[in-house]
Amino acid sequence: MKKIIISAVLIALVGLGAWSGAGFYAGFQVEKSLLAFLEQLPERSPMRVLDVKHKRGLMVSTGEFTIRYANPQAHGEKRPDLVAAVMHYEVDHHVSWSHSAVFTWQLKPIDAFEQKIKTLFSTDFQVVGQGNIDWHDVLTSDFSAPTLRYEQGGDMLALGPWQGDMLKDGLVFNFIVQSPEIDIKSQDTFLNVKNITFDVNLVDRLNGLGVSKLTFDDLSFPTTKAQGLTFIASSALDQGYLNLEIEKQIKKADFAGQSVTNFDVVFVLKHLNQQSINALSLVLNEAGNFDNLTSEQQKTVQTATRRLIQDGFVVSIPKLQAETERGIIEGDAVFELAAQVAGPSGPLSFDAAKQIKANGQLTVARLILPPEYEGLVQMLGLATRTDNGLKSQFSLVDGKLMINGRNIDVNMQLQRLNQAVTAFLVKGE
After folding, report:
1. Distance CA 294, CA 286 (A)
2. What does the alpha-carbon distance between residue 380 and residue 386 come to, in Å, rounded to a whole number?
3. Is the CB of residue 184 less than 8 Å from the CB of residue 157?
4. Most buried one in 3, 91, 336, 344, CB count within 10 A?
5. For residue 354, how many other CB atoms are within 10 A of its CB?
6. What is 112-173 written as a DSSP string?
7. Is residue 69 within 8 Å of residue 41, measured between CB atoms?
8. Cα–Cα distance between 17 and 27 in angstroms, integer?
9. Are 110 and 88 spatial neighbours (Cβ–Cβ below 8 Å)?
10. Measured between alpha carbons, how far is 281 from 90 in angstroms, rounded to an integer?
11. Rounded Cα distance, 38 and 47, in Å
């Protein structure tokens, strides 16, 4: 019996040691993953992470770091922070079958940002969350923030409450935040937004590639009411070139006595040199705008822009549609800048007639217009009559601009464009 007891104790001690060792290892891995994540913020990100302090314990680790976001409207190298906050966290790495660690965190405003919130809302604001890290290093967390409310005289501002979830899995980053209402009122005006959802799904968080979606159920202010607003932005890489797509949808909107339903427009940018876009974004984040650049920043902007022009790109509106009281609108357009190729000798040159192509059309079905207006539109060459409405179209090919079947002389404009772009290209070499 004595031997059995001793053996059981030894087994228990070994198990406890293994469990403690696993917890210590999990704590080490958590620290490694956290520091790597903070160091891997996109270079062109306007957000900075500073003063990282992590204290690893046997079963519980704690730490904090500061997040700062410079005011994009300010000038100079030392721009004031628009947002400044400190993140406190506690990680419990007692291991389990489902996860290697659980954690809680609090994000609190600091410095001038904290004082602004206290002054305006008379409260100590913070975002809190909790989550876990599984054995595949996948991090999930929920979070919430209370309502910020301001009332004085006839003025009122209410933001929130907010709730959300996030997930990090390698380069994948998903983020969703929701709020039932934003309400702003004053003696002169008001703004009310209901059921806001911001949903981000990135397949490559370092390059910001993926899909972001912002939706409002209802939006209203004195001159406008709208329902079912959706804004979608997506980005992807194709062999070193960036493709962007932005879509705006509105189920119904009433403004200035006019009504629009089923509004949908898509804007696309294709074949943008990724290195150039990254360089321009970095300069913009550093300087706030392109108005007051240093000589080095000006050189960077010029080189990046030159490469964009050299490689060519496509701008298009593949979809434009809306239903109005006067008719159904549909249209599309595309603008293509062909790649610039250096000749066998001499500097690069630009030939707008050869490199620029464009075409587009706009139709209005079941158009209801007074006869005198419709006649004026056709007389000015703005549109032509179809079986069920009016149609306007244009094309630019080989330097020849056609609008609704009419040839428009643009030689002088193209020559001026050639001179300006060529001078820029040569200057950037």
Report:
1. 11
2. 16
3. yes
4. 91
5. 10
6. HHHHHHHHHH-S---EEEEEEE-TT--EEEEEEEPPEEEEETTEEEEE--EEEEEEEETTEE
7. no
8. 15
9. no
10. 34
11. 11
